[in-house]
Amino acid sequence: NAGVTQTPKFRVLKTGQSMTLLCAQDMNHEYMYWYRQDPGMGLRLIHYSVGEGTTAKGEVPDGYNVSRLKKQNFLLGLESAAPSQTSVYFCASSRGGYEQFFGPGTRLTVL
Amino acid sequence: KNEVEQSPQNLTAQEGEFITINCSYSVGISALHWLQQHPGGGIVSLFMLSSGKKKHGRLIATINIQEKHSSLHITASHPRDSAVYICAVWYDKIIFGKGTRLHILP
Fold first, then answer.
1. What are A's interface residues with B at a Cβ cutoff of 8 A?
2. Cβ–Cβ of B95/A42 closer than 8 Å?
3. Min CA distance, B92 vs chain A (Å)?
4. Which of A84, B43, B63, B69 has a C-alpha 20 to 30 A away from that of B97?
5. How far does chain B reach from its first CA to its final CA, in angstroms?
6. A69 to chain B nearest CA, in Å?
7. CB A79, CB A28: distance < 8 Å
8. How high is the mean pLDDT of chain A?
9. Distance (Å) of CA B105 to CA B16, B35, B40, B84
10. What share of chain B is helix, strand, coil (3-state, %, to 5)?
11. The predicted structure's pLDDT at residue B1
């Protein structure tokens, strides 16, 4: 099993460009999450999903959109990237509200 | 005031030492999660607990719900334990601590 995978691993964008980060899990988990990690701060929840076709806002949702069209995939979109969105993005999944399994992260730089 | 406070922020110790990392929180929680973030950036789940104590190998996690406090202990520490250890608490949302950076010297 691959666990949780993220695509891409690295990306550099210019301000105003758009992109989509893909998270995939093969553990049949219901819950999926997108976090961002910035220096000196803890992980912060952007959006999450408790099942296929559902999404909900986390702590820092502004500037991001998500979709969960298939149970195994959770997409994070940036419609118009800003330098403040430079960060490391982690996806995670869990079976219900239990321990989370994390992907390897995506390092995004917005110039 | 941060809802989740970890101490110490940084810790350097000699191989073989007993390590304690603390996590205090200010809200009523349903569960607490200890995570390890490797120098390469990957995050691994260590424990999820809502009461008592859990042990896995050289790692022990305890939680005192009344005192709103949890500790992560590492016995016989080894340089490969060098990592950032993160505490996270669940109530109506999940809040992460800023992490404790542990460096074990050979």
1. 40-45, 58-59, 88, 90, 92, 97-102, 104-105
2. yes
3. 11
4. A84
5. 37
6. 23
7. no
8. 95
9. 9, 21, 18, 15
10. 5, 60, 35
11. 55
Give the gap in angstroms from C-alpha A41 to the nearest C-alpha of chain B: 5
Nearest 10 degrees: Cα torsion B76, B77, B78, B84: 160
The half-sphere exposure of B16 on its side-chain side, counting CA atoms within 13 A, is 1
Contacts of B86 in chain A (CB under 8 A): 42-43
- What is the token pair recorded at B36? 């390890």
Q: What's the rounded Cα separation, in Å, for the pair B11 and B90?
A: 26
Of A42, A98, A102, the CB nearest to B98: A42
Tokens of A6: 């993220």
Q: Which pLDDT score is estimated for A74?
A: 98
> Block means of pLDDT (10 residues each) for chain B, length 106 residues?
88 98 91 92 92 96 95 97 95 88 97
Contact present, B53 and B60 (Cβ < 8 Å)? yes
Provide the pLDDT confidence category of residue A49 given band limits of 50, 70 and 90.
Answer: very high
